[in-house]
Design brief:
mainly beta; Rubrerythrin, domain 2; four-stranded antiparallel sheet; elongated; Ribosomal_bL33_sf; ribonucleoprotein; Ribosomal_zn-bd; Large ribosomal subunit protein bL33; Ribosomal_bL33
Length: 49
C-alpha cells in the first residue's frame, strides 16, 4: 500500500515536497537529498508525520 508522505528540509525545517512510499518495503522514515528553494542548495530532506 502506497501512502503520501511529506518531506521537510533539515536546515530550514520547511516542508517542501510530497511523495509516495510503499510502507511494506520501507517501514522506516525516508531521507532524500533534494533542492530547497529557501536555502538555495541541495539539502537532506526527511519524512515528517
Amino acid at each position: 500500500m502506497r501512502t503520501l508522505v511529506t518531506l521537510a528540509c533539515t536546515e530550514c525545517k520547511r516542508r517542501n515536497y510530497t511523495t509516495k512510499k510503499n510502507k511494506q518495503t520501507t517501514p522506516d522514515r525516508i531521507e532524500l537529498k533534494k533542492y530547497c528553494k529557501w536555502c538555495g542548495h541541495h539539502t537532506l530532506h526527511k519524512e515528517t508525520r
